[in-house]
Write a structure and sequence with these properties.
Layout (H helix, E strand, L loop, with lengths): L8 H10 L2 H9 L13 E3 L6 E3 L1 E4 L6 H9 L4 E3 L8 H12 L8 E6 L4 H15 L4 E6 L10 H12 L3 E8 L3 H11 L4 E5 L8 H13 L2 E5 L12 H13 L3 H10 L6 E5 L3 H12 L6 H13 L9 H4 L9 H14 L2 H9 L3 H9 L3 H6 L6 H12 L2
Parallel strand pairs: 3-4, 3-10, 4-5, 5-6, 6-7, 7-8, 8-9, 9-10
Antiparallel strand pairs: 1-2
Length: 399
């Protein structure tokens, strides 16, 4: 490879800050291919489990070419996250297809799957099918998916997890959470038998006192933490002076706003890994570059991001559904609606958003549409226009 085809990490980050997605694809085919020669993927201890994981993990709810998975392995992105329900099972099947073709890579991969079953028998059935789809005898970590109260995990759950560990089907056990996350994390830290948690964590959430307490409690309890939803609602939106200043400053320093948001999360050493959905090679390349680059954000960068979070708080749901949903006479899945609306508007994930609304019965949609959301809006710490957003979501996906 000639010198003109080699790009330094710093040069690549500067290029990524101004390039379009199409340009980044071209970069991958030439200069960015040298990225693997620049440095190794950093790793961190996964709580006190004795496992080291890469700080960047591959979110597997997308239908990806095997080439991308192969490149991820070469660049050290060896933590792969999937679930029984992702893409109707096709996400697990894709990984199984990869492991059939490259069985030697299984030893490198920290493989995670999840179950949304509501019973222990259902979890057993889903785990059995997941292992078949994944073409593996075990998973490194098994999550109960989308826990909203620590009461969902009882002694029977603990017994189930210990049995599956003894059988060699799972190595570690934990849960993912989107709603009432801090309360779930604080509860898990007291249980003493939760190995890992995946929760939303980003520049909007990380400065909240309750989230700080929850992360610290989990770290003290030895729980491995994986951050998801790290973009905090998607790309920067134009409209305020803060946004313009922040975007300009980040680009001068060689970061896109997306890369800066990742680096903000990595600055907390208690976060072992970031789970990122990387639907194309350009995003994989940019995220790997951000992970390998050791340049830290400045205090000024962090202050601007905090100010931006405050100015745009009404655009982002914190998932504290114990507040808003409890305020209604008839409960509505406000947190789920806000999250799936974000999937579509911020991440362009129409398939996942549409799938959620499609499973709502017609009578349930009518009930949700007829509710008065003023009480929930008065209590919302983000001052979100909940009623308006619910109506927009129902109109967008249910008509």
């Amino acid at each position: 490879m000639t010198e003109q085809h080699i790009i330094s990490r710093r040069s690549f980050l500067k290029t990524a800050g101004t390039a379009t997605a199409a340009s980044l694809v071209n970069l991958f085919q030439g200069p960015a291919a040298a990225l693997g020669q620049v440095g190794e993927m950093p790793t961190r201890p996964f709580g006190q489990t004795g496992v080291q994981v890469p700080i960047l993990s591959f979110g597997g709810s997308l239908n990806l070419p095997l080439l991308m998975l192969r490149q991820a392995i070469k660049w050290g992105v060896t933590y792969w996250d999937t679930a029984h329900s992702y893409l109707g099972g096709n996400s697990e099947k894709l990984i199984g297809k990869y492991l059939t073709k490259f069985p030697q890579d299984r030893r490198q991969i920290f493989l995670v799957t999840k179950s949304h079953a509501w019973t222990l028998d259902g979890m057993s059935d889903e785990l059995k099918l997941s292992l078949q789809r994944l073409n593996t005898e075990y998973v490194d970590l098994f999550f109960v998916h989308s826990v909203s109260s620590i009461a969902e995990l009882d002694e029977a759950t603990r017994t189930w997890a210990e049995k599956k560990k003894a059988e060699g089907k799972i190595r570690l056990f934990g849960f993912s959470t989107h709603s009432n996350m801090e309360a779930c994390m604080l509860g898990a830290a007291k249980l003493g038998w939760i190995d890992a948690i995946m929760m939303s964590y980003n520049f909007r959430l990380m400065h909240r006192d309750m989230m700080k307490q929850a992360v610290a409690a989990c770290a003290e309890a030895g729980i491995g933490l994986t951050a998801m939803k790290t973009q905090g609602g998607g790309s920067l939106k134009t409209g305020t002076r803060t946004e313009g200043e922040m975007a300009e400053r980040l680009l001068r320093r060689g970061f896109t706003d997306a890369q800066a948001k990742l680096k903000m999360v990595w600055e907390n050493p208690n976060i072992a890994s970031i789970c990122s959905e990387m639907p194309n090679m350009s995003i994989l390349t940019a995220n790997v570059a951000a992970a390998q680059n050791r340049t830290q954000l400045t205090k000024s960068d962090r202050r601007r991001m905090q100010r931006y979070a405050q100015e745009t708080r009404s655009d982002y749901c914190l998932g504290c559904t114990r507040i808003c949903e409890a305020a209604l006479d008839s409960r509505a899945p406000i947190g789920d609606i806000m999250r799936h609306l974000m999937y579509w508007r911020s991440y362009g994930d129409h398939h996942r958003a549409q799938g959620f609304f499609d499973q709502l019965p017609q009578e349930r949609r009518i009930e949700i549409a007829a509710l008065d959301y003023q009480a929930a809006e008065r209590l919302c710490p983000q001052q979100m226009a909940i009623g308006q957003l619910v109506q927009e979501a129902l109109k967008e996906f249910c008509t």
